[in-house]
Amino acid sequence: MKDTGISRLVALEKNADLKKIGEKILNKERISFEDGVLLFEQGSLSFLGALANWVREEKHGDKTYFNRNFHIEPTNVCVFSCKFCAYSKLYAHREEGWELSIDQMMHIVKSYDGKPVTEVHIVGGVHPKMDMEFFTNLLRSIKAHRPELHIKAFTPVELDYMFRKAKLSTVEGMRLAHEAGLDSLPGGGAEIFHPEIRTQICEDKVDANGWLSIHQAAHELGMHSNATLLYGHIEKYWHRIDHMERLRQLQDKTGGFNTFIPLKFRNKDNDMSHVAESSVIEDLKMYAVSRLYLDNFPHVKAYWPMLGRQNAQLTLNFGVNDIDGTIDDTTKIYSMAGSEEQTPSMTTADLVTLIKQVNRQPVERGTLYNEIRDYSSIALSLIHI
Prior knowledge:
With 385 residues, this protein is of the alpha/beta class.
């Protein structure tokens, strides 16, 4: 049922084209590519935010999800040289980076024994010595030690390299990884799909078709995954919509995506430091249009270590219903690029407070959005972890 407030807002919109788009959204009709571009180009922040918030509340009410997770970053040594990346060190200069052994990574996993984490998130650089055999051994070791821990790991950039080096097809490689213990895929490595931009910022790594085919193979094995978009650099609005259109089409086919995560370009210590970062207004527009365009994605996430806590709170009124997890200071990817959070760690009580401060309902979830605990009526003094 339509909210009279949002209906009135759409009815009063003076731009006839925006008004038509608003009416489509209220009628739960799919908006077109051209509609998506127009929302970016001409939609006011208040108009976009109100529509995105209406869609968010139609899908999820006030529920705002988070999970208890930690990250493992096996290496920042990489054979690729993405211009936006401040994290990796080229293999030729690998002495400047880090390379973790399986024993070292298992030490990290074991440090969470007895703690109620539900997910380990594993991504890193593409290291020639960390191949398919290395990572399947890691997956098996984690599952043998803690079978219930959900392993969300490896971007298509990492997987494509592993599969090619092992002379495996995408389908064969995904099957072997899944059998070894890989439960789902994160959304990284997508950047911007269109070759006009991709060839300028990350030419040497897997292309859009390769990225999408790996996620499709995962979905067809019954696995779920996330998707990202790196925004706010040299792309135009239509590049963003082109990216989301490709995701929307694959989601129509497989239904395997859980979450869309816009990732803000940060310009510290990389080859694109001359490119200015987007404003908070542009950030919020990105989240809002994502919610409106990706009508078949259940969730939109704001990655709080990248945005900062206050800006992550703002996104909860612009279509976002997930702010990721506790993380526990186990990721360096964004802090090294100049993100707002240089030591990204929040306790469960911190996350609950953050969500409650903007009158939303904090719900702890598993990776696949099974609800673990609703913290709406739990006193902060009773949250100890």
